[in-house]
Amino acid sequence: MASVFTWQRFRGLTPEIHLVLAGTFLVRMAYFMVWPFLAVILYRKFHLSATSIGMMLTCASLLGAAAGLLSGYHSDRVGRRKVILAGCALGAIAFFGLALAEHPAVYLLAIAGVAIGNALLESTSKALLGDKIADARDRELAFYVRYFMINAGVAVGALIGVWLGLSGKQWAFSVTACVYVGYWLLLVAKLRDSAPRAPQAGRARPGFAAACGQVFRDRVFLLLLLSNVAMAFVYANFDSSLVQYLTRSRAPQLMAMISTLVAVNAVTVIFGQFPILRMMEPLRPRQRIVIGVALMGASQLLFAAAPVSSLAAFILATFILSVGELIAFPTFSVEVDRNTPDHLRGTYFGASNLYSLGTALAPVLGGLCLDHFGGGALYLGLAAVCALVALFNRAASAEPALSPARQAQE
């Protein structure tokens, strides 16, 4: 059987798919040129507390999760193109709003607009890949490339933001808005819609409540979703709680240590993703998920055991976490695609966007655990979460390869 990870297979994807993949990179790059500095602007401009800023971002994440579910369902009814264009336009308007805002309430509305716009883009773009690519192995490659584009965009965008001196500059949000506008224009010119998939003969298209009911009664999908929420929660603690843990523990050369760990994570994911996944290609996707989750759990045990004075131990833990991440996260999308009925593909991918609940809860719950129990307890708890997820997915490997919904369709 031909390998998934070949240049010929990638070149064989249609121009529309290449556009969506390149757009994913551009949007993420533009987003991370300015978004990491949002908290700095809110503090300098309005002297908001860390709690207030955190609540604004958490509320935006929750709105984005809900919007992903709604937009996925509507993309099944009206087509992907309209929803993707709406998400791109909303993102552009919201970033222009951030560039012009002079009141915290306006910032809150704009932040919510960014979260909702990105949710529309995220869930519907993944559903579009499933619609436009007939071959299952080509689709698998597209999902892995998309994840690579996200990480490359994050790394490049953050570097450009620092290099161009965009940190703390409110007008810089307009640069990101212009990138969204450019992507929107390309989509208008190049992206063709595919007709919404009809349900099986003799069945009416379900309403929103019925479609959600079908999605959340799908045990295979629900297991994947809960696993993804848990893993997002574990990984998000690397971005939020680890910094607080090292700060409170008075780690030597703190800023250099944090920068090194972030760099190790970025370099590992960007340069290691395809070589590692190619080595794991003979394994089934669920087996890859189990291995990825197990590696993430091992990294949490090392974080718990390592003395904060040992940079080498934290680099090793970060490397193991990064390898687990690059295996597990894109494979979740591959498994969702394999277990999704065609006429509800958008609804399924919209529901899968609820994984961001884990990201939203991590700063709050991680901070509470640090305050009351300490870093060791936090990382042992995160390792236990990984162990449970690995066990659940190991058990699921014995079940049918496709969900009941997909089996009924086929």
Automatic annotation (TrEMBL):
Q: Give the matching Pfam families.
A: MFS_1
Keyword Chaperone carried by entry: no
Question: Which UniProt keywords are listed?
Answer: Cell membrane, Membrane, Transmembrane, Transmembrane helix, Transport
Membrane topology of the entry? Multi-pass membrane protein
Task: List where in the cell it is found.
Answer: Cell membrane
- Could you name the domain of life of the organism this protein comes from? Bacteria
- Spans traversing the lipid bilayer: 20-43, 49-71, 83-101, 107-129, 141-165, 171-189, 220-238, 258-277, 289-306, 312-334, 346-365, 377-396
Q: Which residues form the Major facilitator superfamily (MFS) profile domain?
A: 16-401
CDD domains the record matches: MFS_MdtH_MDR_like
> Which InterPro entries does this chain map to?
MFS, MFS_dom, MFS_trans_sf, MFS_Transporters, Sugar_transporter_CS
Q: What is its main location?
A: membrane
Query: Protein name, please?
Result: MFS transporter
> What is the native source organism of this protein?
Chromobacterium phragmitis
